[in-house]
């Protein structure tokens, strides 16, 4: 999603002086994923164990929990995680194409190998890595495969990827959310853009994906899933992780429609202006235009979450308190009432409940836990909204 933010909104990121920072962050993640692809059919997919991690509350400098590495391969497949990694590396390769062609080509090579691996060896990764099942189980691999195929088509123009989109991939149907476990809306948005640009035919699977995207967007615009205060409401646990990617797709498709021929430049429920207005309303809500009058982005505005459920933020820094914080001893900082000693600038917390209420308590992890999956698409949303039109 961060790479897509760069690909989609390179100009406003550059105008804001943030393109270099965005690319540096994409490079860090893409380099990690490329290194995790240790061989053609070997991908490391997890480091550490969720149960042992959750049994400790320490800052990263003091961590002494097991750092066991887990991988998928031909005999223990993980086509979902391999497909997702292929999509991430292909998207990053597009982001770097004009800035670092050598790095871009390296990422693309890994992406193509991983896509082949995923297609040949099907199977959900939690069946090969049971340690993942309790925390991040996957409900299927078809969304990741079509997501990867679309990004690889964008990166290469290859006929084999075009053929996968046209005939092999599950197009997903009408979705209600776009998330770490469901990539169909993202793939549908990219396919719709490719149709509007004349790079894919408005027929068959591609046309179905475009139609399903429009159903998702109209569901959002018709405001039938909003909290009283106006935020998209889907889940009680970290609801904002669904809001920011939805806002990203809404804003991106507004631009896709605005750039298309007039006959294609509207949905049955509105056009580019309505889409962009909705994306702005969600960003405004997150940044403070909400019943709590609180910014859910930490460090932004005059009032923001102070008890973020985050170990490194809640435990005093090693500079101010150099003594080791033990695995169990750190739980005192989790239960302590009061602001975190370290401000986790830029993080977005899970957010309020369906009635727009927010309990700023470190113990309330459903609302106060942040995630990278929430903030990555917000980079693109804010970049787009920084433009005047």
UniProtKB/TrEMBL annotation:
Query: Could you name the active-site residues?
Result: 309
Q: Where are the residues of the annotated region Disordered?
A: 56-77
Superkingdom, taxonomy of origin? Eukaryota
**Comp. bias (Basic and acidic residues):** 56-65
For this entry, list what GO says about its biological process: cellulose catabolic process
Quote the EC number.
Answer: 3.2.1.4
Query: Which intervals hold domain Glycoside hydrolase family?
Result: 1-382
PROSITE patterns noted in UniProt = GH9_2
For this UniProt record, the keywords arranged alphabetically read as follows: Carbohydrate metabolism, Cellulose degradation, Glycosidase, Hydrolase, Polysaccharide degradation
Say yes or no: keyword Hydrolase present.
yes
Q: Name one Pfam family in it.
A: Glyco_hydro_9
Supply the InterPro entries for this chain. Answer: 6-hairpin_glycosidase_sf (IPR008928), 6hp_glycosidase-like_sf (IPR012341), Glyco_hydro_9 (IPR001701), Glyco_hydro_9_His_AS (IPR018221)
* GO MF assignments: cellulase activity
- Which reaction is this enzyme known to catalyze? Endohydrolysis of (1->4)-beta-D-glucosidic linkages in cellulose, lichenin and cereal beta-D-glucans
Task: Return the SUPFAM superfamilies for the record.
Answer: Six-hairpin glycosidases
Q: What class of enzyme is it?
A: hydrolase
Q: What family name appears in the similarity comment?
A: Belongs to the glycosyl hydrolase 9 (cellulase E) family.
**What is this protein called in UniProt?**
Endoglucanase
């Amino acid at each position: 999603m961060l790479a897509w933010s760069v690909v989609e909104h390179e100009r406003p990121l550059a105008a804001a002086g943030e393109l270099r920072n965005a690319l540096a962050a994409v490079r860090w993640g893409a380099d990690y994923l490329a290194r995790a692809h240790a061989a053609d059919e070997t991908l490391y997919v997890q480091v550490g164990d969720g149960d042992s991690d959750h049994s400790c509350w320490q800052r990263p400098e003091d961590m002494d929990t097991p750092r066991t590495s887990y991988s998928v391969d031909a005999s223990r497949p993980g086509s979902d995680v391999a497909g997702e990694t292929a999509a991430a590396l292909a998207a990053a390769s597009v982001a770097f194409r004009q800035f670092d062609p050598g790095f871009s080509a390296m990422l693309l090579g890994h992406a193509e190998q991983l896509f082949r691996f995923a297609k040949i060896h099907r199977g959900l990764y939690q069946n090969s890595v049971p340690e993942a099942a309790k925390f991040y189980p996957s409900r299927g691999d078809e969304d990741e495969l079509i997501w990867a195929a679309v990004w690889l088509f964008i990166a290469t123009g290859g006929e084999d990827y075009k053929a996968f989109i046209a005939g092999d991939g599950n197009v997903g149907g009408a979705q209600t959310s776009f998330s770490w476990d469901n990539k169909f809306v993202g793939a549908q948005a990219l396919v719709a853009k490719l149709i509007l640009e004349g790079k894919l035919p408005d027929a068959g699977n591609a046309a179905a994906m475009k139609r399903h995207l429009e159903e998702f967007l109209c569901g959002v615009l018709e405001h039938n899933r909003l909290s009283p205060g106006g935020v998209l409401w889907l889940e009680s646990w970290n609801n904002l992780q669904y809001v920011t990617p939805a806002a990203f797709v809404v804003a991106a498709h507004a631009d896709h429609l605005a750039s298309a021929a007039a006959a294609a430049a509207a949905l049955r429920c509105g056009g580019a202006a309505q889409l962009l207005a909705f994306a702005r309303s969600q960003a405004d809500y997150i940044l403070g235009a909400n019943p709590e009058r609180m910014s859910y982005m930490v460090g932004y505005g005059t009032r923001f979450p102070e008890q973020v459920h985050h170990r490194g933020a809640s435990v005093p820094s090693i500079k101010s308190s150099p003594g080791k914080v033990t695995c169990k001893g750190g739980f005192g900082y989790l239960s302590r009432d009061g602001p975190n000693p370290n401000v986790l600038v830029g993080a977005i917390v899970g957010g309020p409940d369906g009635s727009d209420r927010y309990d700023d308590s470190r113990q309330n992890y459903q609302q106060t836990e942040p995630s990278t999956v929430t903030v990555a698409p917000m980079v693109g949303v804010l970049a787009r909204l920084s433009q005047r039109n």
